[in-house]
Amino acid sequence: MLDAHTLSFVYASLMALAILLYAILDGYDLGVGILLPTNNEEHADTMIASIGPFWDANETWLVLAVGLALIAFPLAHSMILQALYLPITVMLIGLIIRGVAFDFRAKAKTKRKSMWNKLFKIGSFISAFMQGYMLGLYVMSFEHSALATTFAMLSGIGVVAAYALIGAAWLVLKTQGQLQLSAIRWCQIAGRMAFFGVIGVSTINPVINHSVYERWFESSIFLLILPIPIICLTLFVLLDRVLIKLKEQPNVGAWLPFLISCVIFMLCFFGLLYSFYPYVVPGKLTIFEALAAPESLNFLLYGVIVVVPTILAYTAFSYRVFWGKVRPLSYY
Amino acid sequence: MLDTLLLSRIQFATNISFHILFPTITIALAWFLVFFKVKYDRTQHPVWLRAYRFWVKIFALTFALGVVSGITMSFQFGTNWPGFMEKVGNIAGPLLGYEVLTAFFMEATFLGVMLFGMKRVPPKIHTLATIVVAIGTSLSAFWILSLNSWMQTPTGFELRDGVVFPTDWFAVIFNPSFPYRLTHMLLASGLTAAFLIAGVSSYRLLKGDNKQAPQLTLKVSLTVAALLAPMQIFVGDLHGLNTFEHQPQKIAAMEGLWETQKGAPLILFAIPNEQTKSNDYEIEIPNMASLILTHKADGQIKGLNEFEDARPPVKPVFFGFRIMVGMGFLMITVAVYFRFTLWRKKSLASWQLKVLVAMSFSGWIATLAGWYVTEIGRQPFLVSGVLRIEDAVTQVASENVLISLIAYLTIYVLLLIAYIRTLFYTADKSVEVEEYQKPSIEENIYA
């Protein structure tokens, strides 16, 4: 039986892992949705085929992340969710629209297909933007001010760019021919936008959040954490180089952009964690104050220890089954 | 002006009612697919593969609607019912956690292999993936019904400063009403899927589809319905006896009994009147309710007036119960009679097919009615005897809840229309598909 302090740490780490995996995994499939062309049905079909077997499981990480918050830090969960009531509703509607559009576009009447394609794109965009918007409000401690809203909008655009980046990188990996070339171009544009987004958010955040400033610039481990932003920004530059090379030889190292994007996501996420730890609601509630009953969390922990590695194993199996360049989706 | 409490309740009811439509189908449809697939593996007869392919499309669509409406549910606790997790989160949390961990990931991941992996994995692995998805959907029913049953009949906990703490997890999970509710719901899912398959298969036959597959699926689904419907009546009765023991006020509302009495009548129809605390326009069978519930003609049944401060709303429970039971008996009659016709005459008459088309969604009506009975019958408590509904509600402004409610309602209505239309459109398309020439053509499907 673990004590409350250890459990706070364990569950906060699990929640962080779930959020990070969600951002990467649903990030790429939302990104593919955002990039969906409305004037090229063949490309749209291939793009959707590339995420078909995965999107459902990807979205489950969101349920797990929210679930862990609900289970381990119920007070934080209700504070955050009540503060974000309307943005969450909008995001959920976005997720609903895109989730069902995925199936309806393939099964509804042919004349309706382009409508469902558009809804898929719009739904993906709304979900991504609202996630970034809520992240912005969270960073601003749910302040009601013009500054907070502006920052949240910026953060929304940043997340759309980041998801488009990782979505395009996924397409570079999974597609070939004309579509792959388009994906390389999208990846470059989204990469540059995300680059400025990351710089923007990471400069504004310490300027308006004094505790974040202290955390980064008045820290005794300043030199230890300094490499995080430096490596992150270097990776953006490297990504750009790789993409230029890929235009010439699309088959050499097509997996690199996706890998680099994943590392960028991890570094940004780590930077965010570092800025706020141990707070789960910035400035209001720490992971140690918000914890649920240890006897309940210990009971769930048995399951976590057995099941989470199993989930990771069969997720790997599913990616192995659908390894390689995408083929048309068919039920048989 | 509508207040946050009422709006949140309407919104939760809307979300859960919409959500449950889809798992109710997929839980059992997954097992139908396992059956089709295993039959195909064994016999290599293409008709089973046809059945599988058609219904796996419907499954995918239904599953997607279940997933997206389920994600909404996971946010509702925090946005609208924060008090629920603050008071009983120590029980509800791990049960929900186990559902996500053991069921959601498994079904979502293997669904990818099941839907799109037939050419990519060996046949046995594909069948295995189908079985894993079916296990996943049933496991998810296990956990969520455990939690729901605990809210109805809580055991294995203690209260400290108004907050619930677990003392015995076995007693929490296998609380008194859980085995009955789980069985009742799984059977309801079986019947819902069976009548859907029967309805859509009949629709195809009426549209002139003379292939083997719809005839086969009609036969399989009617057989299942004819077997499950009588079982459901039996299990439903046991569930009722369990409720009588643990939640007598719910039984009183279901039966429409106001006064505690010995030899209580079975009220077939009435209009309960909450003002006069009596029924108008009663039609009753003397002593029958006592006989059913206590197995004695003069057994005592507690009336609603005994539960003055904790009385559930009577009308919805009373009518919901009658709709559910009425639908149950209609299903049993149709299933048994039509299955008999099929056995004697090898095919159904056109009017019989039309009846089945009309009853495609009869399972939805019975299931929703049943859930309204059990959930409204728990009122005014959220967790029986532990937490009242008004103590769990959000601080969010009522305007915001109104906005979200309107948004959900609009989108759910549109999606329901799109779902049903697409279902029958998929059936229309399949009518035009050619029958296979010889089994050998499709034997090499995995090559």
TrEMBL record, chain A:
A Pfam cross-reference name: Cyt_bd_oxida_II
Keyword Ion transport: no
CC terms in the record's Gene Ontology section: cytochrome complex; plasma membrane
Membrane topology type: Multi-pass membrane protein
GO terms (BP aspect): aerobic electron transport chain
Origin: domain of life: Bacteria
InterPro entries per the UniProt record, alphabetical: Cyt-d_oxidase_su2
Chief location category: membrane
Record has Transmembrane as a keyword: yes
Ranges that cross the membrane: 6-25, 83-101, 122-140, 146-173, 194-213, 219-240, 252-277, 297-317
Alphabetically ordered keywords of this record: Cell membrane, Membrane, Transmembrane, Transmembrane helix
Localization per Swiss-Prot or TrEMBL: Cell membrane
GO molecular function: electron transfer activity; oxidoreductase activity, acting on diphenols and related substances as donors, oxygen as acceptor
Family that this chain belongs to: Belongs to the cytochrome ubiquinol oxidase subunit 2 family.
Name this protein carries in UniProt: Cytochrome bd-I ubiquinol oxidase subunit 2
Originating organism: Pseudoalteromonas holothuriae
Automatic annotation (TrEMBL), chain B:
Compartment list: Cell inner membrane; Cell membrane
Transmembrane segments: 12-34, 54-75, 95-116, 128-145, 185-206, 218-235, 319-341, 353-373, 401-420
Predominant location: membrane
Protein's GO biological process: aerobic electron transport chain
Any one cellular-component term (Gene Ontology): plasma membrane
Superkingdom field: Bacteria
A single MF term (Gene Ontology): electron transfer activity
Pfam families listed in its UniProt record: Cyt_bd_oxida_I
Signal peptide span: none
Matching InterPro entries: Cyt-d_ubiquinol_oxidase_su_1 (IPR002585)
Membrane topology classification: Multi-pass membrane protein
Family: Belongs to the cytochrome ubiquinol oxidase subunit 1 family.
Protein name: Cytochrome bd-II ubiquinol oxidase subunit 1
Source species: Pseudoalteromonas holothuriae
Top-level taxonomy: Bacteria, Pseudomonadati, Pseudomonadota, Gammaproteobacteria, Alteromonadales
Gene name in the database record: appC
